[in-house]
Amino acid sequence: MGDISPLDAGTEVPVVEFKDVTVRYPGKGAIRPAVVDVNLTVPKGRFVCVVGPSGCGKSTLLHVCSGLLKVSGGEFRYLGKEWRKLHPGIGYVTQRETLLPWKTVLGNIALPLKITGMPRTERHERAADMAASVGLGDWLNHYPRELSGGMRQRVQLGRTLVTDPTLLLMDEPFGALDAVLRVRMQEFLKSRIEGTDLTTIFVTHDLSEALTLGDEVVAMAGAPGSIDQIDKLEDLPRGVSPVELRQSPAYAVHEARLWKTIAGNLSEDGVALSNPEVEHEGDHAMTAAAHGRRGTS
Predict the structure, then answer these.
(1) Crossing angle of helices 120-133/149-161, nearest 10°?
(2) How far is CA 130 from CA 114, 142, 148, 234, 254, in A?
(3) For the packed helices 105-115 and 149-161, what is the interaxial angle rounded to 10 degrees?
(4) Helix (H) or strand (E) holding 90
(5) What residue spans carry the region label Disordered (predicted)?
């Protein structure tokens, strides 16, 4: 099981905090949980990558962080609070392209500002500044069909960042890109976020991508999923290219350790192996919590 990431005494409230969390998707009858016994703390400004096989609950954690999904057991806090609605200050980027084809680069980036009611002149100025910051200042009046895959992903990132989110959630955003473009987008994302207070949780199947981008890597395993290992990457060289990073001895150590965790819980077809022992632990925890609520009512 994963341990809670340690926080130094006197630090501010973490942005995200999972405590013994179990999540079951709504439905009829007995449904196996998606994740069980998840413990994780993400401080402000941290870049956390989550890896693991298909079916281990990586995307479920993002749904909980956004407020789209509530926990079934345990406790989840965002900015130190339990929310009953969608969480404020969230930016969400998915692998699926969600640009509006009838809007220009400027219009797509300005869209969330328009939704909040920002005046047209102000939102266009802000969107233009954001477009320039993601390298698209000369493409404001172009439509998505006129852009490359990497450029469209930068528009999506710009549209997300223009609202100044507190927490950036990314669910395999570069999964559809070719290998060269993927590395370029990794470098771009790292340069765009590094040195800011933006907290990021990045889900990926690609272990090398996680080691390139993250301050720490969370390895999930099993179905239902649980955190099996957390690797902190302070010993990896920073400010170097992905190629140079992957040549460092520390990189090889982290890669081997994390891959051993993931591969040991992976079926031949790449899906997370069933984890009945963990599932039963989650059932016991939820039963105990239910009895506790009845006892205090």
Answers:
(1) 130
(2) 15, 15, 18, 30, 35
(3) 20
(4) strand 90-94
(5) 277-297
Q: Are 131 and 140 in contact (CB under 8 A)?
A: yes
Place of tokens 């698209």: 136
Average pLDDT rounded to a whole number, residues 170-183? 85
- Answer for the pair 24, 33: CB distance below 8 angstroms, yes or no: yes
Contact 184, 176 (CB under 8 A): no
pLDDT tens, residue by residue, 113-137: 999 899 999 999 999 999 998 889 9
- The two counts, helices (H) then strands (E), for the chain are 9, 9
Place of tokens 């905090």: 17
Closest-CA residue to 76 (of 23, 27, 24, 1): 23
Grouping H, G, I as helix, E, B as strand and the rest as coil, residue 47 is: strand
Confidence of residue 87 (pLDDT cuts 50, 70, 90): confident
**Residues 260, 203: Cα–Cα separation, whole Å:** 19
Strands 216-221 and 226-232, how do they pair? Answer: antiparallel
Look up residue 179 and give its two tokens: 């290998």
DSSP 57-75: SHHHHHHHHHTSS--SEEE
Domain boundaries, the chain: 97-164
